[in-house]
Specification:
heterodimer; A: about 575 residues; mainly beta; Methylamine Dehydrogenase, Chain H; 5-stranded antiparallel beta sheet; 42 strands; B: 6-stranded mixed beta sheet; two-stranded antiparallel ribbon; 5 helices; about 30% helix
Chain lengths: ~575, ~250
């Protein structure tokens, strides 16, 4: 059997549909097995180069698969001599259906408005499609990203799976598989190997990267097939991924746990019926971090990002505030609560989170139990001129002074109360990040919380006569940006003795009011003053090291989660550490 | 010299020889996790006069056809013209760019002129692919490359030699600077230079293909060949190659 050439056409019969003439102008594509021709608006014909490869009984069996997502053969095609030469099937309009390999890219997501919600819908339908095939006794075997398409016009993404005649069904085995989706640890092809292949493809829908790619310290970049055999996936420690890889937090938690179990631990089973329910073992390790640019001594790792909802602030307790007001637990990626505005502080309790906000001149307290994702407003009435957070402690500045908030648990009941109050002039006190500054008739005092329950008033003469603009304090260290009477800015760094009884100061003229510093509880600071340079210092000893790295930018907004340095850049949350 | 210097592009230099320049999309701007770097180098010497329009059409069709590839969003395409009348013998029409950012219909008309710095074109095309590929690999992207040089004549003015080209290609096959590299020379109207062009295969390590006469239909086929080669090389990167027969040992 020969395909139509430029010199002629081919007359064939679509069994059940009638005679047609395939002309060279109907030609769509030619592959390894044969050529595809368009027949009318909604049908294509596959004509095999070698007619002996047409198996009529298999085509008839596959024709019984009726699913909108499965592009199954609809009938045989026979020659004028009634010899089988191919089959016909529904036509996929590429103007409406994108090959799945394109859906992997950020360019596609940005251009088409695709997002994680659509990704989840699509992947659920792909799962249902594989289940449908299995339910009819078929094994897909070679369902690689070039055999999946997606119909998407701004909503309701639908999969389409093609090359169905290559499936194994009945007594007819599959004959080929793409190396990148093959379960190299399986001895044959069955439902479990299909789910592995499905996992490889759908993981890329969410993240854009093959689960065995990225830079693994023990393998060459060309050895991704070897990594598949060794279960050395992206979930392995120290695998580096480029900046175009989407954050794993886009993957529903239950499915993420399944991916890790399959790709890294070698487990083989069906994906979860509910993608959102995480297993106990996955809860502790939700995040596969992303690394870019590791030049020199610094390693940058992406901790969190959310499409169209930038991270705007971090709290030392390990929470992050998004532009939408959502507060999230960065470690587990779970939403904690929704804040009314940006003026809030978040502390971690043994079983949950305590959120302090200022609303209409009153302190508002919310408690969110860990893992429940339910926030409870706590009855607690106290006037608030301002609020202050220090490490894991919360304070309200009111008429009586600076009052610490205490939380009490009585079984399942949680109550908030006012703890110790330190006197201060409420109308002459400003709250900053980790400290208050009181102007007592021109004399400046710092209000410095320290330890688990202490707070010290420290007279700081260096600030007298200056207008304080920004401040940040941590363990035995505070840094303040102030303007003098001439309008010049100064940064005053203060290093305190262990009992906060004395301090050493360092005054530096600065060009702007930026205070880009992370003050770690262990007594180390990280700061950025110039692009390309991260300064690591130990204030108590005066030792400082400047680490040059082209990825360091003054656009980074530094903070810390405990002793971990984090920063916000372009709406994403990252960590940075020394190699 | 690179001519497109928009904010999304960066420039680089090919090591050795005349320090050929190239440009490519800034790595921070890239939207996929792996790329095939495609370079199409087109001979624009005086001898292409008479089919220069068809040659340009062939180039446009080839680049347009790449957009139909399932992995079109994983391609970065660079187009250069070469003849000795150009500065350094090479004119970069555009550097490595995503296909979505390329409008092939805006490619300039070919103005046939000068002699044939064929080896320089091959050397710089391979070198630029390696240099940009290394930058991608250093940033944990996966990259491979394909260089296609279309010419109608043997070299007669280059500084580079076939040995130098061969060394560059060998660098690309070690998998350190780039995952893999294919370099193809395509000859058109090769009646009087077929033997000379065959040296690109025997001495320089490129694959040589004789496309026959520079007729409209032959050039149309050449465009198809280019896009198929590109698609195949890209598929090789993303999937480890096409679907393979299942061995009976399984």
């Amino acid at each position: 059997m020969s395909a139509p050439t430029s010199r002629g056409s081919l007359k064939v019969e679509l069994v059940g549909r009638g005679l047609v003439t395939l002309r060279p102008s109907d030609h769509v594509a030619t592959g390894g097995e044969g050529s595809i021709y368009r027949v009318g608006k909604d049908t294509v014909a596959k004509i095999f180069t070698d007619p002996k490869k047409v198996i009529p009984a298999k085509i008839r069996e596959l024709g019984k698969l009726k699913s909108p997502y499965v592009i199954a053969p609809k009938g045989l095609i026979v020659s004028e001599k009634c010899d089988p030469v191919g089959y016909y099937m529904p036509y996929i309009d590429e103007a409406e259906c994108a090959p799945l390999s394109r859906v992997f890219t950020n360019d596609f997501w940005n251009r088409e408005g695709f997002n994680e919600k659509f990704a989840k819908e699509l992947v659920i339908r792909m799962r249902d499609t594989v289940s449908f095939a299995h339910g009819h006794g078929a094994i897909l075997v070679d369902a690689n990203e070039l055999n999946w398409f997606m119909k998407f016009r701004g909503s309701n993404p639908e999969p389409r799976v093609v090359d169905v005649d290559s499936w194994a069904i009945g007594r007819w085995p599959a004959t080929a598989i793409m190396p990148s989706i093959r379960d190299w640890n399986a001895k044959g092809f069955d439902e479990k190997s299909d789910w592995f292949s499905w996992g490889v493809v759908t993981f890329q829908v969410f993240t854009g990267v093959h689960p065995y790619k990225g830079t693994h310290p023990s393998y060459k970049k060309t050895e991704f097939l070897e990594r598949m055999k060794a279960n050395a996936s992206v979930f392995a420690p120290n695998v580096r991924l480029n900046q175009a890889v989407r954050d794993f937090s886009l993957i529903p938690k239950g499915l993420l746990a399944w991916y890790e179990a399959v790709f890294q631990k070698g487990e083989r089973n069906m994906p979860p019926s509910n993608f959102d329910i995480a297993t106990a073992s996955s809860a502790a390790r939700v995040l596969r971090i992303q690394t870019i640019g590791k030049s020199g001594l610094l390693v940058f790792e992406k901790l969190y990002e959310r499409t169209n909802d930038a991270v705007v602030r971090t709290f030392r307790s390990g929470a992050a505030l998004l532009a939408s007001g959502l507060l999230v637990d960065v470690h587990t990626k779970q939403e904690i609560a929704k804040a009314v505005g940006r003026e809030c502080e978040v502390a971690r309790t043994p079983d949950g989170w305590l959120i302090l906000e200022k609303e209409n001149g009153q302190a508002k307290l919310t408690y969110a139990e860990m893992g429940s994702q339910k926030a409870e407003w706590l009855a607690f009435s106290i006037e608030a001129k301002s609020i202050l957070g220090y490490e894991n402690r919360l304070f309200v500045l009111g008429e009586r002074g600076l009052t610490e908030i205490k939380l009490h648990s009585f079984g399942t009941k949680v109550l908030a109360s006012a703890g110790q109050t330190w006197s201060t002039l409420p109308n002459a006190t400003q709250c900053f990040d980790g400290l208050g500054i009181q102007d007592a008739m021109g004399a400046k005092f710092l209000l410095l919380p320290f330890g688990d329950s202490g707070l010290m008033h420290v007279r700081v003469r260096e600030l007298d006569g200056k207008r304080v603009l920004r401040g940040k304090a941590g363990n035995r260290f505070a840094s303040v940006i102030a303007a003098d009477k001439s309008g010049s800015y100064q940064r005053i760094d203060l290093v305190f003795s262990k009992d906060y009884g004395t301090y050493r100061s360092d005054v530096t003229a600065v060009d702007d009011t930026e205070l880009d510093i992370a003050i770690l509880p262990k007594g180390v600071n990280a700061s950025i003053e110039d692009d390309g340079e991260l300064c690591i210092s130990v204030p108590s000893s005066g030792v400082a090291t400047k680490l040059e790295d082209k990825h360091v930018s003054t656009k980074m907004i530094l903070g810390n989660f405990g002793d971990q340095v984090v920063y916000i850049e372009n709406g994403s949350l990252w960590s940075v550490r020394m190699k | 010299m690179p001519r497109l210097k928009d904010a999304t592009m960066q420039t680089g230099t090919v090591r050795g020889l005349q320090a050929f320049k190239f440009s490519g999309t800034k790595i921070g701007e890239l939207g996929a996790t792996e790329y095939t770097l495609v370079t199409i180098a087109v001979d624009t010497t005086g001898s292409v006069m008479g089919f220069d329009k068809e040659l340009r059409d062939c180039l446009i069709t080839a680049v347009d056809s790449c957009k139909k590839s399932p992995r079109s969003m994983n391609l970065l395409v660079r187009v250069i013209f070469f003849n000795s009348a150009l500065p350094n013998g090479i004119d970069e029409i555009h550097g490595f760019k995503p296909l979505g950012d390329i409008d092939p219909s805006s490619y300039p008309d070919i103005v046939p002129d000068g002699l044939t710095p064929l080896y320089d074109a091959c050397f710089s095309a391979v070198g630029a692919t390696l240099a940009y590929g290394k930058q991608l690999m250093d940033q944990d992207f996966l990259a491979n490359g394909i260089v296609i040089v279309i010419t109608d004549g043997g070299d007669n003015v280059s500084s580079a030699t076939t040995t130098m080209i061969k060394k560059e290609i060998e660098r690309g096959t070690k998998g350190e600077e780039i995952e893999s590299l294919i370099a193809i020379a395509v000859g058109v109207n090769t009646k009087f230079c077929a033997t000379e062009l065959a040296k690109l295969e025997t001495e320089a390590g490129m694959k040589y293909i004789d496309a026959g006469d520079a007729t409209k239909s032959k050039l149309a086929k050449l465009a198809g060949f280019v896009s198929q080669s590109v698609s195949s090389q890209s598929q090789s990167l993303g999937t480890g190659g096409p679907s393979q027969n299942i061995a009976a040992t399984i």
